[in-house]
C-alpha cells in the first residue's frame, strides 16, 4: 500500500512534469517564466526541464547518484568543458559517502569555488558556462561547482608589439589568465575589476579594470553604463565592444587603443585610463585614448629617454610621410614644378618621359599594387610568402618601371610611404592613415597643394572635434596641456614628468617631487 | 547612415563646390609635358627691328641616351657639337611677350620658365636700345625667378647658347655655375632691377664671350664660354662701357662684391701672389666746399700662396712691406675702374647712394645732373691689407741665411 502510494505519487509528479514540458513545447508557457522559476525540490521536474533546454546537445551529460542517506542527486554538465576526474573526486565521491547534505554543501563550498542557485534559469546558464551543477531530491536549490576545463593556450610573447627591452608576455584568450597578468603588476586592493556579461547567447565575460583613486569614478561609471547598454547575440572580440562604446563610431579614427601587452595596459591604468578585458580576446582595450598614441610605443618607456624622444619625433615625421608623401609628390610634379630644384625636375621629367598615365593615376596604380601585395602577404599560406614577395619585388619594383607603366621615383615614394606606415606602433590608427592617403592623392591630383591643404584641414578639424570618453582626441596638443607635453612628442625622464594624462583629473600627480638623482657631495 | 543636419549638409556642399570652382580644377601639367627653359638669349635681328630670342630647352629624354644612363653621365659625348641634354629654339618679334607666344607655338610642350638659369643679352641689344623694356616684362612674368643671373654677351647672345660647355648639361647650367664661382661677378635679376630703378647707382652685368679654342687634342672642346669683364649701363638702360677682366676687379672691389681673388704683388725683390680670404669695402661721402667727396675704404685679409720674390717670411717687417704694396695694387685697380666709369659718365659703384646716405642735402641738388657730376667727383681711396698666413710652410724654398 505504502509502496503503491509512493508509486502513484511518483506517477503524479511525472505526469505533471510531462505536462509542463508539453505545455512549454506547445508554446503555452512563456519561456521567461521558466527562467525565473524557482527550483522546487522536485528532482525529476528540474531534470526534465534542464534536459529540454539541452535537447540536441550531445555533450550534455547527467549522472544520477544515490546519496548515503538514500536521497537521489543529479549531476548535470557539458562533458567537453568539465574536468571529469576532478568532478568525480570532488563532487561524486563526497556525495556518495557524505552524510548530511547541508554539511556536504558547506564542505564543498569551502573546498571549491561554488555557487548556490535558486532558479531554473541560473542552472541552465551555469551549465553552459562550463560548470557542473547538481541538485538533490527535496532540496530547493542547486549547487554549481567550477571544475571547468576550457582549452586555452599558455602565455606567449606579444607578437604584434615586440620590444627589445621590457616584459615580453602577452595577453591570451583566457580572461582569468589576463586578469592574473594585470593583477601581478598591481598588487593593490585598489585595482578593481567590474564584472559584466555581454551577449544574449555568448554570455561573454567582460571586466572593466581600473585603479580606484586614479581613474575618474565618473569615467568608470560611463564605461560600465555603455557596456551594459549593449544588446547583441554574441561577442567574439573586444572589437565589437569597442564599436558599441566609442564616442564617435563613424569616425575613421579609433578612439580607443588596443594592446596585447599587459604592461601597456597597466601603464594605462596607472595613468588613470580604464582597461576593458573581454573573454576570448587576447588584447585589452585602453580608454580614453588620444591621437598621439599613434607615435608612442611601449618601448619608449624602457629605453633611454633621449633616444625615445628622438624616435618619437621620427615617428611623427613617419606619420606625415605615411599620410602625405604620395600626395605631395603628385601635387608638386603636376602643379608646382617650379618648387623643385632644377636638376631634380629634369631627373623626374626623364623618368616620366615614357609613362602614359598622369602622375595621380600612376600613384594610385602603384599604391594599389602595394596594397594588394600587403594584403596577399597576410593571407597567403606561410610557405608561399616568399613567392609573393619575389613576384611583388619583380613586378612592382622592376618590371613596371621597365615597361614604363610607372616611373622609378613614384615607386620609391610609394615604398617609402608603405614603410613609414609600418613604422607606426599602433596598428588601428595606422590603418586610418593608410586609408586616408588615397583621398589625399586624388585631392592633390585634382587641386594640387590647395587640395592637399584642404584635405588636411578636413582631417584636422575632424580629429580636433573627436572625443574619447570625453577626453579631447588631440590632447595634449589641442587643447594644449603644458604639464603633459613632457610625454607627448618626446619623453622626459621619469623623474621629470610627474603628471598623469589629463583624463586623471582627480589624482594628476604620480610621483613625489625632487627625485632627480645627483651624485653625493661626499664620495660614499 | 551618417545623419547630417540640413545646415551641415549645406556647409559641406558649399565647401566642396567652392573648392572645386575656386581652384581652376584641371590645370595640372605633368612634368613630361613641360619644355623646361634653361637659358634665354636676347639678340637684335640682323635685319629688321624687334628682338630675336633664343631659348635653351632641356631634353630630359636625351639625358640617359647613350647607354650609360644617369644624369650628365655622357662623358664620351662631350665633344659633339650639341650638348646632349638641351636643344635651342629661336623666335623673332617686337617684344618679349610676342616672342614668347611664338616660341610657345613652335614647342610641342608648355614652356616652363621657372627653372631658367641664365638670361643673356647681346651687347648689341644694350647698345642700340634700352634693356629696361625687357626688364619690365621680366619683372612682371611670374614664372621667372628673381635670382636668375643676368649676363651680357660680347657678340651674339645665341652663340653663347650654341656653345658646348664642358661638364654641364647645357649652357644655362654652365653659366649659372660659372657665375657662382666667387672670383666672378654675379648679378642676379633682382639686383639688376634694383640698380636700374634706384637713383645713385647704375646697373652692371658680367660680360660673357665665346672663345674659339683650337683643338689641341681630341679631348679639347672646340668652343668655350668665358666670363670676361663687365658691362656698365647708364640710367636709361643702355650700354655705356665695357670693362676688361683686369679692370673689373676694381669694380668688384668698389661694389663690395669681391670675395675671392688672387692679387699679384710686385715687390722690389720680385713678385708674389696673395690669396684673398675676406674683404670688405665701405663708401663714404664727405662734404667739402667744392661739393661732396667720396672716400672708399678697402679692407682685406690675405694669405700668401706664392713667394716668387723669395723674401724672408720669417721676418716680421716683410709683412708691412707686402701689405703696403698689396694695398697700392688694390687702389690702382680701383682707380682704373673709376676712371673708366667717369669717362662713360655712369656710376656703377653707388657713389650717388653714398652721398645720399651721408649728405642728403647736397644729394638733393646734385641728383638731377648726377651723371655729369659723376664724371668729376673726387675719390679718395685707402686700403688696409692684413697678410695673415703663409700657407703650410714659411720659407720652404729659401735657404737659411741667404
Give a structural overview:
The complex is a heterodimer of chains A (524) and B (402). Chain A is built from 17 helices and 12 strands. Chain A is of the alpha+beta class. In chain A, the strands form 3 sheets. Chain A has a 5-stranded antiparallel β-sheet, with helices on both faces. Chain A has a 5-stranded antiparallel β-sheet with strand order 6-7-9-10-8, sandwiched between helices. In chain A, α13 (359-379) packs antiparallel against α16 (427-447). By secondary structure, chain B is α/β, with parallel strands linked by helices. Chain B folds into 2 domains: 31-62 and 79-243, no CATH class; 255-402, GMP Synthetase, Chain A, domain 3. Chain B contains 12 helices and 13 strands. In chain B, the strands form 2 sheets. In chain B, strands 1, 2, 3, 4, 5, 6, 7, 8 and 9 form a 9-stranded mixed β-sheet that branches. The longest helix of chain B has 29 residues, at 316-344. Chains A and B meet through α12, α16 and α17 of A and β1 of B.
Continuous helix count of chain B: 12
Q: Name the helix and strand elements of chain B from N-terminus to C-terminus, one letter apiece.
A: HEEEHEEHHEHHHEEEHEEEHHHHE
Distance between the termini of chain B: 101 Å
Distance between the termini of chain A: 99 Å
Helices and strands of chain A, in order, run as HHHEEHHEHEEHEEHHEHEEHHHHHHHEE
Number of strands of chain B: 13
- When the domains of chain B are counted, the total is 2
Structural class of chain A: alpha+beta
Please tell me the total number of domains of chain A.
3
Number of helices of chain A: 17
Beta strand % of chain A: 5-15%
Binned, the helix content of chain B reads 25-40%
List keywords for this structure.
heterodimer; A: 524 residues; alpha+beta; five-stranded antiparallel β-sheet; 47% helix; B: 402 residues; alpha/beta; GMP Synthetase, Chain A, domain 3; 2 domains; nine-stranded mixed β-sheet; four-stranded mixed β-sheet; 12 helices
Amino acid at each position: 500500500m505504502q509502496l503503491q502510494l509512493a508509486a502513484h505519487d511518483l506517477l503524479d509528479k511525472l505526469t505533471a512534469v510531462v505536462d509542463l514540458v508539453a505545455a512549454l513545447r506547445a508554446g503555452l508557457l512563456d519561456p521567461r517564466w521558466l527562467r525565473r522559476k524557482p527550483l522546487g525540490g522536485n528532482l525529476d521536474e528540474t531534470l526534465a526541464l534542464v534536459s529540454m533546454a539541452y535537447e540536441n546537445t550531445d555533450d550534455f551529460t547527467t549522472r544520477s547518484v544515490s546519496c548515503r542517506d538514500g536521497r537521489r542527486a543529479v549531476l548535470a554538465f557539458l562533458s567537453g568543458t568539465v574536468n571529469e576526474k576532478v568532478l568525480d573526486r570532488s563532487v561524486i565521491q563526497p556525495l556518495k559517502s557524505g552524510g548530511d547534505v547541508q554539511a556536504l554543501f558547506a564542505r564543498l563550498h569551502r573546498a571549491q569555488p561554488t555557487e548556490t542557485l535558486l532558479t531554473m534559469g541560473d542552472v541552465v546558464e551555469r551549465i553552459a558556462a562550463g560548470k557542473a551543477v547538481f541538485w538533490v531530491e527535496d532540496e530547493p536549490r542547486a549547487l554549481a561547482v567550477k571544475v571547468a576545463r576550457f582549452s586555452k593556450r599558455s602565455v606567449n610573447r606579444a607578437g604584434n608589439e615586440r620590444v627589445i627591452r621590457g616584459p615580453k608576455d602577452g595577453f591570451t584568450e583566457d580572461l582569468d589568465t589576463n586578469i592574473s597578468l594585470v593583477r601581478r603588476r598591481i598588487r593593490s586592493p585598489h585595482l578593481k575589476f567590474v564584472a559584466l556579461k555581454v551577449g544574449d547567447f555568448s554570455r561573454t565575460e567582460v571586466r572593466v579594470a581600473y585603479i580606484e583613486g586614479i581613474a575618474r569614478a565618473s569615467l568608470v561609471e560611463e564605461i560600465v553604463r555603455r557596456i551594459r547598454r549593449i544588446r547583441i547575440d554574441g561577442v567574439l572580440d573586444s572589437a565589437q565592444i569597442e564599436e558599441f562604446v566609442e564616442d564617435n563610431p563613424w569616425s575613421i579614427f579609433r578612439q580607443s587603443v588596443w594592446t596585447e601587452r599587459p604592461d601597456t595596459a597597466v601603464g594605462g591604468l596607472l595613468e588613470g585610463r580604464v582597461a576593458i578585458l573581454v573573454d576570448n580576446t587576447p588584447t585589452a582595450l585602453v580608454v580614453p585614448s588620444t591621437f598621439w598614441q599613434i607615435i608612442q610605443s611601449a618601448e619608449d618607456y624602457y629605453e633611454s629617454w633621449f633616444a625615445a624622444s628622438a624616435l618619437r619625433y621620427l615617428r611623427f615625421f613617419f606619420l606625415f610621410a605615411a599620410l602625405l608623401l604620395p600626395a605631395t609628390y603628385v601635387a608638386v610634379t603636376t602643379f608646382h614644378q617650379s618648387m623643385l630644384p632644377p636638376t631634380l625636375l629634369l631627373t623626374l621629367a626623364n623618368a616620366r618621359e615614357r609613362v602614359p598615365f598622369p602622375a595621380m593615376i600612376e600613384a594610385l596604380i602603384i599604391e594599389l599594387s602595394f596594397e594588394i601585395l600587403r594584403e596577399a602577404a597576410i593571407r597567403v599560406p606561410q610557405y608561399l610568402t616568399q613567392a609573393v614577395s619575389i613576384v611583388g619585388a619583380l613586378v612592382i619594383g622592376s618590371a613596371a618601371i621597365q615597361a614604363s607603366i610607372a616611373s622609378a621615383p613614384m615607386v620609391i615614394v610609394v615604398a617609402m610611404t608603405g614603410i613609414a606606415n609600418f613604422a607606426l606602433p599602433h596598428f588601428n590608427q595606422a590603418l586610418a592613415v593608410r586609408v586616408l592617403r588615397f583621398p589625399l592623392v586624388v585631392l592633390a591630383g585634382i587641386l594640387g597643394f590647395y587640395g592637399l591643404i584642404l584635405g588636411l584641414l578636413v582631417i584636422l578639424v575632424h580629429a580636433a572635434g573627436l572625443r574619447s570618453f570625453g577626453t579631447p582626441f588631440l590632447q595634449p596638443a589641442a587643447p594644449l596641456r603644458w604639464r603633459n607635453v613632457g610625454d607627448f612628442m618626446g619623453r622626459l625622464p621619469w623623474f621629470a614628468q610627474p603628471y598623469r594624462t589629463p583624463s586623471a583629473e582627480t589624482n594628476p600627480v604620480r610621483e613625489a617631487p625632487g627625485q632627480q638623482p645627483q651624485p653625493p657631495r661626499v664620495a660614499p | 547612415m551618417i545623419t547630417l543636419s540640413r545646415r551641415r549638409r549645406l556647409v559641406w556642399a558649399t565647401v566642396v563646390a567652392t573648392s572645386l570652382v575656386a581652384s581652376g580644377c584641371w590645370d595640372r601639367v605633368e612634368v613630361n609635358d613641360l619644355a623646361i627653359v634653361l637659358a634665354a638669349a636676347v639678340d637684335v635681328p640682323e635685319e629688321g627691328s624687334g628682338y630675336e630670342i633664343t631659348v635653351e630647352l632641356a631634353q630630359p629624354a636625351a639625358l640617359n641616351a647613350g647607354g650609360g644612363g644617369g644624369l650628365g653621365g655622357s662623358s664620351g659625348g662631350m665633344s659633339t657639337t650639341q650638348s646632349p641634354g638641351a636643344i635651342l629654339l629661336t623666335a623673332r618679334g617686337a617684344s618679349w611677350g610676342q616672342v614668347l607666344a611664338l616660341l610657345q607655338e613652335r614647342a610641342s610642350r608648355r614652356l616652363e620658365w621657372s627653372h631658367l638659369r641664365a638670361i643673356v643679352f647681346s651687347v648689341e641689344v644694350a647698345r642700340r636700345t634700352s634693356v629696361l623694356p625687357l626688364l619690365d616684362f621680366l619683372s612682371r612674368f611670374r614664372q621667372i625667378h628673381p635670382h636668375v643671373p643676368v649676363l651680357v654677351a660680347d657678340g651674339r647672345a645665341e652663340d653663347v647658347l650654341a656653345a658646348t660647355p664642358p661638364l654641364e648639361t647645357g649652357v644655362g647650367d654652365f653659366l649659372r655655375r660659372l657665375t657662382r664661382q666667387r672670383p666672378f661677378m654675379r648679378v642676379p635679376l633682382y639686383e639688376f632691377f634694383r640698380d636700374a630703378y634706384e637713383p645713385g647707382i647704375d646697373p652692371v652685368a658680367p660680360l660673357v664671350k665665346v672663345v674659339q679654342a683650337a683643338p689641341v687634342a681630341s679631348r679639347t672642346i672646340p668652343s668655350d664660354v668665358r666670363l670676361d669683364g663687365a658691362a656698365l649701363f647708364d640710367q636709361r638702360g643702355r650700354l655705356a662701357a665695357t670693362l676688361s677682366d683686369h679692370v673689373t676687379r676694381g669694380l668688384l672691389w668698389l661694389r663690395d662684391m669681391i670675395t675671392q681673388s688672387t692679387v699679384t704683388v710686385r715687390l722690389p725683390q720680385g713678385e708674389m701672389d696673395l690669396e684673398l680670404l675676406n674683404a670688405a669695402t665701405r663708401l663714404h661721402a664727405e662734404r667739402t666746399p667744392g661739393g661732396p667727396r667720396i672716400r672708399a675704404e678697402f679692407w682685406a685679409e690675405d694669405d700668401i700662396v706664392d713667394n716668387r720674390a723669395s723674401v724672408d717670411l720669417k721676418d716680421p717687417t716683410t709683412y708691412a712691406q707686402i701689405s703696403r704694396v698689396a694695398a697700392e695694387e688694390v687702389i690702382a685697380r680701383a682707380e682704373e675702374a673709376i676712371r673708366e666709369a667717369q669717362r662713360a659718365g655712369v656710376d656703377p659703384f653707388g657713389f650717388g647712394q653714398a652721398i645720399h646716405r651721408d649728405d642728403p642735402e647736397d644729394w638733393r641738388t646734385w641728383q638731377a645732373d648726377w651723371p655729369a657730376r659723376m664724371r668729376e667727383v673726387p675719390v679718395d681711396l685707402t686700403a688696409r691689407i692684413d697678410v695673415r698666413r703663409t700657407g703650410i710652410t714659411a720659407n720652404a724654398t729659401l735657404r737659411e741665411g741667404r
